[in-house]
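Hi P.,

Sorry for the delay on this. The queue was packed all week, but I finally got your sequence through. Input first:
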Amino acid sequence: MSIKGAHSACNEPTDGETLLLDRLRKAVGSKHVLTEGTALAGALSEERGLYKGNALALVRPANVEQVSEVVRLCYETGVSIVPQGGNTGLVGGGVPNGGIVLSTGRLNKIFDIDRVNATITAGSGCILAEIQQAADDAGALFPLSLASEGSCQIGGNLATNAGGTAVLRYGNTRDLVLGIEAVLPDGRILSDLNGLRKNNMGYDLKNLLIGSEGTLGVITAVVLKLFPKPVQRMTALAACTDSQAALDFYGMMRTKNADILSAFEFINRFALQTVLDHGGGSDPFGDIHPCYCLIELSSINPDDELRSRLEATLTEAFETGAVLDAVIGASETQNEALWQLRERIAESQKFEGASIKHDVSLPVSKLAEFIEEAVAACLDHVPNVRPCYFGHFGDGNLHFNFTRPKDMSDADFLAEYASVNRIVHDIVNRMSGSISAEHGIGRTKREDLHRYKDPVAIEVMRQIKSALDPKGLMNPGKVL
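Then the structure:
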């Protein structure tokens, strides 16, 4: 019996589906197998509303054994599974097309905090902010930080190898993981919850699952690295003439302050203006500038002179012309206000109309060249389009977006999505960059992955997928 992806939300379950639902209810409890209602409806679309799917049911197992049983039952009956965490993804990777949605929300226990080993072991359904808080309560730091940290789950962070604002100093999610537990597509449990910094016992399977977007299994628990908690931080916003000046300023900051530089974010004027225009704060400067750099320095040493080091570097940047003006936060409240100018860009951009978005990364040395060329090319294609770009300059990741011209309808602008996408991604590819920096591939970038990635790499990925998931049941239609 095979009923893979056959269910439509408008159809009555078949006999085979009804039998499967009964077995799922027995495995996890009736109230955790949802076939209707707002919870199921919420699991069928992604945050931006660009994709909407259908599913036989939303299933909410409470532990790894229940996950294993759910996956085994689906494997036996040929029913597809979409693992879903906080459903905060931006590329349609968590939207189902039939089958079941397996929610990890009940896998939300923090099992252990080892202060000496500097690790925290947590279920994949733990909210990222809760892990941050648990680490803080233990006198440590878990540095992964995203705009969606109040709702995204750590399992989803692993599944997409999330980035965020602290990659410059601490690395991507992949760099923060020591051990992993997952249920494979046939229901077997892969148990590798170790806290080892060195472990060369064969293939590193955890790194196969990290970034796989639920296509190779269901991550159920993880061992994460903790770091010493900074005892002081300094935040500043610097105004620059253009992206090349900002890149020059980054070079100065890295050279002078690499040991204390935690974040270096870049914001163009339009991106900042959207925040200011839609209730996100006030402009720290009296004059309008083309672009801005948000810098954070932090230290675990109370004797480090963060302010004097920051001021010394800013003085040098003023003298070279890389920086035009700067403000330094004088308190945690002011630090947070400066960060909010960065964090509110995505939500503020929505008020300006339709947008075409890209999540790209490039060699840091090519960021300014890319911005100049890609902006010019897109303006040539769509006159008066409004570039809205910002991101993690220190690790080469840009959220390179365009908001529709004021005199153009949303529909007409979105009709240019494919052509604008191709213009931007062709330039990224030519400059040895990546079309997906931290959001994943999902549905949105599946065709582009095949266009730009090495064909041999694609074939190896297919072979891995086939070996682990021969029936193609895990998050079908995503990535490959």
